[in-house]
Design brief:
Belongs to the bacterial solute-binding protein 8 family. The protein is of the alpha/beta class. It contains eleven helices and twelve strands. α3 links the parallel β5 and β6.
Amino acid sequence: MKPTRTLLVASAAALALALGACDTTEDDADASSDGGEKITVTDSRGKKVTLDGPAERVASTEWNTVEYLISLGVQPTAVSDIKGFKTWDKSVELDDDATDIGTRGEPSLDTLASLDLDAVFVTDQLVGDAIEQIEKTTPVIVLPGGDAKDPLGQMWENVDLVAQATGTEDEAKKLKEDFDAKVDEAKKAVDEAGLAGKPVAFSDAYEAGGAVSVRPYLDGSQLGALLKELGFANPWTKIPGMEGDPAYGLGTTDVEGLTKLPADTLYWYIGNEGEADPYTVALGKNKVWTGLPFVKAGNVTRLPDAIWMFGGPASMSDFLDAVVKTVQGS
């Protein structure tokens, strides 16, 4: 059975149109109900959403936005699939009193309506007329799920939009400064290890019906873009016909496709302790896999679990830490 995150991301990739978020904020001259200044933001639909003030009681249907909020100092009142979030994203800590609102693609509309929220953050992957239904009771701010043309840039546009809606622009600026410093440190570690230009193939994989499907992270993915920024080469394009989806920059292949990767490839992936590792279990005795040059050379590395591959600055920072430890051999 496919992991939950595989099904949802694959669905999002098929539905998302990689809308460009417009992150402008306009100060409204009208006073809010409590005497403060209203806040108007423009979301990825191009729609102006007016709030009575900085949103404090907020919900999010997608885990990347949950991570943005917590990183900005705002604990969400409600989150989709809390168990899944806490399993796959340990880069931030969600308070135990958050309310679960169901699945990421189909949140409970009744629960959302009962929580007296200031705003609900969603991505453009919600099914049907869910956004319109939520808007009957609560302001909705829509963010793109991703943009393979500029994945890291889109991440920061999303962070800025969330910061504007929650009045945490200073925190967002500090996040960016700290992240840029961490990227510089990681670049230095890669250079010192003599690995600049080395091909790194990052993936995740799942087993279904006895077959293993591999999901390559191309340059259009957040992690692929980050590896490129660190100076690594992305070898996935060596596989004929390999293309990433327009939202998440993810491709698809099988174990036979891996034979097209360069012999000196460093093969990295992330798994989860709650699922069997397809590379060691399903492929453990597969002659194609075990015969690959980089497998024979011991250049396959499972990075630490629970770094959310589609997360925000906190997850990306943890990924950078994992890269540095890997290249330093620690």
